[in-house]
Design goal:
Layout lengths: L1 H5 L2 H5 L20 H6 L4 H14 L4 H13 L1 E4 L7 H12 L4 H7 L10 E4 L4 H7 L7 E4 L10 H13 L4 E5 L2 H5 L3 H15 L3 E5 L8 H13 L4 E3 L11 H18 L4 E3 L7 H14 L12 E3 L2 H14 L12
Parallel strand pairs: 1-2, 1-8, 2-3, 3-4, 4-5, 5-6, 6-7
Amino acid sequence: MGKKKDKNGKALRAVEAPKERHTFARNPGTALELDWVRDVRVNRSAVERRAKTLPGRRSVKKQWQAAWLVRAVQCMDLTTLSGDDTPGRVQRLCAKARQPVSPSLIAALGLGHVGLTTGAVCVYHEMVPTAVAALQGTDIPVAAVSTGFPHGLSPLKQRLKEIEASVAAGAKEIDIVITRAHLFTGNWQAMYDEMKAYREACGDAHVKAILATGDLNTLRNVAKASLVCMMAGADFIKTSTGKESVNATLPVSLVMVRMIRAYQERTGHIVGFKPAGGISSAKLALTYLALMKDELGDRWLQPDLFRFGASSLLGDIERQLEHFITGRYAAGYRHPMA
């Protein structure tokens, strides 16, 4: 074991605890620029060609791969959004968030100094107090899905009250759902006003705007919705609720991160990105990290600007880390998610 640890080299020694959360100014939003929204164009064939190259564009091996997988853990919103959630399940999830990788693996990787945790725990409003209590003494935020998740069709006043209730219960992040009808009717002003109201209801809590991209039909619609939500003050834009028939995909993600880049270049404001749903393998997580590095730079490899919405991903990452240390793949039950 000691010999393997010596082979880790500078890649794993360079793994640090995440920087202090949100060390930059929040996105304050801008006025709604309808001309900019209407002028958005997306070359679908070019996007799809670029997305196909991503899995093989960057190949990280051995200690470098292990270091990237550790960063993926730090950027994970460990999530349970099931109708049969119980306080006990959420408590187990929070225990996993506090110690996402087994102590023996952490010691073998030489990462005892890092204090490895996940980026957040994401739950329904009903479970926010349970999660907050279970995470007491850590800086792991609780994220609450809100605004009539996953469809976002409850009355607006009720959606705003739901946000306020989750913030009052201790949620530090709120994942809201846009009203897709505003997009399909071209009512960008209504989408902007609604998103702005959500941001105001969140107060100091950071807000992630879920676009439900699997419902939006075209990449151009994805780009326009991304832009309007950022103009209205979203701190993150997020692909999916995880409940659509199609969730996060590489083409959709590429379009969204390029809109983040365009928004920053034009306004100077920084916005984060969260792919969610369907990301269950360590290999795919590495591809998303490579996408962020290539398109937005190293700063977007920190959990204050990048998150995976995931539940089963962590188990596969643990298995890959154990393979790095021992040369063998462990059975799945050796790394229970919760």
